[in-house]
Design a protein that fits this description.
3 strands; alpha/beta; three-stranded parallel sheet; 132 residues; single chain
Length: 132
């Protein structure tokens, strides 16, 4: 338990580029979003970083994300993935339900500003990587 505020990061489309689309909870096939690994490494000094995904409560989902993160860290630091397995499992929190975060970064969310949008306009929503 830490006294740091919780930062909740969505996985697909925020950390994992998700260019191949859904292939199963335990299949994480694509590279990181540019800057994601650096961001996580910087954020853990200020936040209790939680990575939460629709994969999180499915068999093999958390393990798949942890293995992917260990490999992504190893590539970033030009080292062996085994050196990052404990970091991926212990320095990051992997909840199975949405945590009470101070802030959440998600590619499929809209910041509530106190005014509700027109529900019809939500049908046109596109995440950052699907916009023209």
């Amino acid at each position: 338990m830490t006294n740091k505020p919780i930062l909740c990061l969505d996985f697909d489309g925020v950390i994992h580029s998700y260019t191949s689309g859904w292939q199963g909870a335990d299949v994480v096939a694509d590279p990181p979003v540019p800057g994601a690994i650096e961001f996580i490494c910087d954020a853990i000094s200020l936040f209790d970083v939680h990575i939460f995904s629709s994969r999180s409560n499915q068999p093999g989902g958390i393990e798949g994300m942890q293995e992917w993160l260990a490999e992504a860290l190893a590539k970033y630091f030009d080292d062996a993935p085994a050196d990052f397995e404990n970091f991926a499992r212990e320095a990051i929190t992997w909840p199975t339900s949405k945590p009470p975060a101070m802030v959440t970064i998600d590619d499929r969310a809209i910041t509530f500003t106190g005014e509700f949008p027109d529900p019809q306009s939500l049908l046109d929503f596109k995440p950052w990587n699907k916009r023209g």
